Design the sequence.
């Protein structure tokens, strides 16, 4: 009877230890992704970058107007990108890169366009893209 109790206690301790070890590893992995990602813009992928969706002069932009920007991620972690406002419009995005290598990040329009025509926006590093604004 004592052997059975001792075995059961040992099993419970080993199980708890494995669970605790597994949970600790998961948490430390998640913490790795909360750091700042390192990436560079992919000039080749962004050579003909154009925003998709429809912006209307005088109307607040919504989540449907996007720009998919090519990057080459050197390390995983959090990212956040925005453009300056031009004629009432900016593009903004943030997220977490879970893998390294060539990939796309999505930016969404925000603001209210003040004039119709084409707006050229610039990302850090000089990459530019255009978005069309239709007259109201």
Sequence:
């Amino acid at each position: 009877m004592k052997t059975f109790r001792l075995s059961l206690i040992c099993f419970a301790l080993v199980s708890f230890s494995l669970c605790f070890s597994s949970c600790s590893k998961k948490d430390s992995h998640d913490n790795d992704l909360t750091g700042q990602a390192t990436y560079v813009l992919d000039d080749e992928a962004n050579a003909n970058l154009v925003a998709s969706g429809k912006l209307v002069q005088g109307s607040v932009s919504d989540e449907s107007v996007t720009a998919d920007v090519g990057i080459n991620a050197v390390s995983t972690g959090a990212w956040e990108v925005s453009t300056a406002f031009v004629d009432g419009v900016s593009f903004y995005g943030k997220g977490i890169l879970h893998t390294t290598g060539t990939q796309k990040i999505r930016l969404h329009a925000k603001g209210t366009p003040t004039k119709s025509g084409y707006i050229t926006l610039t990302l850090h590093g000089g990459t530019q893209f255009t978005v069309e604004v239709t007259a109201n």
